[in-house]
Amino acid sequence: MRRSVITAAAAAALAAGSVALHAQNAPAPARPAKIDLDAWPVPDVSTVADTPEGRLIKRGHELVTQTYAHIGPEAADPAKRYAGNNLACQSCHLQAGTQPFAMPYTGVWAVFPQYRARENEVSTLEERVNGCMERSMNGRPLPLDSVEMKAMLGYMKWASAAVPVGASVAGAGTKPIKEPNRPADPERGARVYAEVCASCHGDDGQGVRNGTKGDRLGYQFPPLWGPDSYNDGAGMYRLLTAAAFVKHNMPLGTTHDRPAIGDEDAYDVAAFINSRPRPHKANLDKDFPDRLKKPADMPFPPFADDHPADQHKFGPFDPIRRSLKDLSDKAAGKN
Ligand code: HEC
Ligand code: HEC
Q: Which atom of ligand 2 is nearest the CA belonging to 174?
């Protein structure tokens, strides 16, 4: 889904560019570059120069890897406690946002501003960061002119440096699972969890802290539910996003080309972790104002189709997609 957004944006940018260029009789623009993050060098932050810009990049790196220490709920300065949990951005954006198919930051600089269905408008990269601040981090938005926002963006720009605008990036976002044609089964997922996940994330899902509560050291193994986890408005709360992330990145050390668990296990364990209690985000009924663009696995009403909320939460999702397509075709005056 996300990849088609890039392609559409790239196509639009190219179309606009070619109109302008042709008007000046310049050669048509080259095809958009294709980049594969598996073969892409991981930028090394220790090589960044000690200049004002370099220091901003390093600060951004520190903010995404040790978010809890600087803007978490235990941060020394109460005014800086923007995040509501002790996760780091890196808890999900693995390897400081460089791991393919773990929603990498590599390349994001080149694809924003970007149309987003959740808001039904074009969002900036700052708004996207704040989407994760309010949802994944269960907190409040960072001011746009704050040094923290500037530093994180500076880091993402640096991590994206060699990716040309309009490039299609293999490894961006998440890699979808092959969806089983049945509702996900949280009870079966609980068994997968006990076997494969609990050794790190804990039998109770509360993870393992690096130190003790209040010391701003975050987690060795982050919690997957409960009060210090992402809220129910987060991308990770959607079944297919969580299943895609888990299958291709967990247990820690797994890469997308060598998954450790199968599609069925990823589907069910995602349903299990997202059936456990977690913080609630207010106003979720306002997300995806164009209901026809609401993803099939967004479990909060109102819905454009007649499928029950439970099916939006647990699947199967293909019948929902078919209903949405029929409704869109009708709205567009087809058939
Ligand atoms: C070997 C230890 C280990 C195992 C086993 C493991 N994880 Fe993780 N998991 C981690 C670590 C560490 C992170 C955070 C990465 C970081 O901070 O760099 C993480 C992050 C996550 C996240 C995103 C962050 C969050 O708090 O929500 C999810 C979701 C997740 N794991 C789910 C699972 C599931 C489901 C399984 C079982 C299929 C699993 N993990 C197995 C170590 C593990
Ligand atoms: C609990 C997991 C989690 C945490 C923690 C998290 N994010 Fe995210 N983030 C996601 C997921 C999942 C997506 C993509 C799906 C979506 O659109 O919601 C995403 C998307 C993004 C994107 C857009 C990426 C793209 O390819 O379009 C940016 C930028 C981003 N996050 C920044 C951050 C920052 C900065 C932090 C820390 C302040 C953070 N995120 C913390 C899960 C997380």
A: 14
Helix (H, G, I), strand (E, B) or coil at 14: helix
**Are 87 and 199 in a shared domain?**
no
- Asked if residue 235 has its Cβ within 6 Å of ligand 2, the reply is yes
Q: Do residues 246 and 265 lie in contact, with contact meaning Cβ atoms separated by under 8 Å? A: no
Do 67 and 181 reside in the same domain of the chain? no
Q: Distance, CA 95 to ligand 2 centroid (Å)?
A: 13
Rounded CA gap, 87 and 82, in Å? Answer: 12
From the first residue on, what is the mean pLDDT of each consecutive set of 10 residues in the chain (335 residues)? 35 35 48 88 93 97 98 97 98 98 94 87 93 98 97 96 88 98 98 98 98 96 98 98 98 97 98 98 94 95 96 98 96 79
18 found inside a domain: no
Taking the centre of ligand 1 as the mean of its atom positions, its distance from the CA of residue 18, in whole angstroms, is: 45
Q: What phi and psi values does residue 309 have, to the nearest 5 degrees?
A: -55, -40
CB 196 within 8 A of CB 260: yes
DSSP states along 81-109: ---SSS--GGGTSHHHHTSTTS---TTGG
Which ligand is closest in space to the CA of residue 233?
2
The range of the structural domain enclosing residue 79 comes to 33-170
Sign of the CA dihedral with 107 first, then 108, 109, and 110 last:
positive
In a domain, 9, yes or no: no
Q: Where are the beta strands (DSSP E) in the chain?
A: 34-36, 114-116, 121-123, 168-170, 208-209, 219-221
My answer on whether 250 and 148 are in the same domain is no
235 and 248 within one domain: yes
Q: Kindly state if the Cβ of 132 falls inside 6 Å of ligand 1.
A: no
CB atoms within 10 A of CB 174: 24
* Distance (Å) from CA 229 to ligand 2 centroid: 14
Do 110 and 182 sit in the same domain of this protein? no
